[in-house]
Structures are given as C-alpha cells and as structure tokens.
Amino acid sequence: MVDSTQNSASLIASLNAANSSVGKKSSASGTAATQDRFLLMLTTQLKNQDPLNPMDNAEITSQMAQLSTVSGIDKLNATLQALSDSMAMGQSVSATSMIGHGVLVPGSALNLVDGQAIGGMELTQPADSVRVTIQDAAGNAVRTLQLGEQKAGILPFTWDGKTDAGTDAANGSYKFSVEAGLLSGKIITSDSLAFGMVNAVTPGAQGATLEVGKLGGFALSAVKQVL
Q1: Taking the model in full, what pTM does it have?
Q2: Which of 70, 97, 124 is the last residue of a domain?
Q3: Distance from CA of residue 198 to its chain's centroid?
Q4: What are 195-218's pLDDT values in tens digits?
Q5: Dist. CA 221–CA 167, nearest whole Å
Q6: Which of 18, 7, 13, 8 is nearest to 73 (CA)?
Q7: Is residue 32 domain-shared with residue 89, that is, in the same domain?
Q8: 44: closest CA among 15, 91, 6, 80?
Q9: Which pLDDT tens digit goes with each residue over 138-173?
C-alpha cells in the first residue's frame, strides 16, 4: 500500500517543479508533460492502494483539481509572457519615432557648440530662485545663470556660451549644477537633466533603450522631456 498523503505531497512537489520551469519550455509541451506525469502517478496510486481501504472519490477529485490549477497557471504565465513580449516590441517600434529628436535625460553634462548649449532640471516644487552654475573640465566656474522664480516640474534652459567675464567659452564639454530655494532659505530638491539627440533605438527584453549620443543608453522611462 502506498501512503496517499505522501503520494499527494510528492505529486504537488512534482507539479510545482514543473510549473517553475515554464519560462524554459513552451506552454504546450510543459502542460502535456505535467499531465502525463500526473496520470502516471495517479495510476500508480490506484494500483498500489489498499483494497480494504481504497482512495475515495473526494481525494481523487482534489488531486484532479490541483492538476487543473497548475495547468491554468502554466497557460496564464504563457499568456502574460506573450503579452509582455508584444508590449516590448510595440514600445520599441514607437520609440523609433524619437530618432533625430532632442531629449532631456538624467545627467549634468552640457555640450557647447558654436555658442549654444541646452540643459535642464526637474524641480519637486515651485522655487523663488533658481541658479545654474556651469563649470569647465577642470571644475572652474565659467558662468552663473540666474533663472529667478520657477514653477515645479521640468525646466529646460539654454547657455549662449558667454562666460561671466563676457568672453566666448570654447566649444566642448562642460558640467552644471542647480541650486533652487525659497526666500525663507529652504532648499528645493532639484535634479539635473542633460540634453542629447536620440540616434538609435535598441530593443530588449526589458523594453527599448534609447542611444542618446555621447550620453549613452537610456530606458524610455528615463526620458523626462522631448524637445
């Protein structure tokens, strides 16, 4: 006689193990293998049961219900994976429309070309004063922009390439920092945003990645604003 409690535990463990491998096998073959395994174990139980104390219908029905639940989870996982893949592909196709457009993404880089540079910031709340300090590669401050009172949200800004001394700064890479606050002296949280041109889109399992020039790759969700 085979102990029905032990058999049930073994069956559940086997079905759970099969369910954990759904991502590595197709849904159809995985479900079929699970059903075959269940039928084999159920047949073995019936062959080795105690004739004087056979398994009752309720226990067999319970095990069949467990199989149905596991099979349903297999199919649900496969459906969700297919939906996720479809959404990722759709996102990648949609993201290609951003190629050739300028975007603001997290970062503090500022690229000056022929007297023009673009940067940005994100303010968590309105500020009475906003100041942008631009530094060269050596960390020396070359220009301070006083942007005054600003609303909360995404704020782009431009730099004409002039230094505080009134001379023209050389083309190249710079960095900037943002300071925002209230008249009371309270500091407002602000995040620096770098500007770049989207030149390629790379599909991936986690969604589309935008290649933003020298700034590198960014997830579509990292784009704060399209300019």
Answers
A1: 0.62
A2: 97
A3: 19
A4: 999 999 888 777 789 999 999 999
A5: 39
A6: 18
A7: yes
A8: 6
A9: 999 999 999 999 999 999 999 999 999 999 999 999
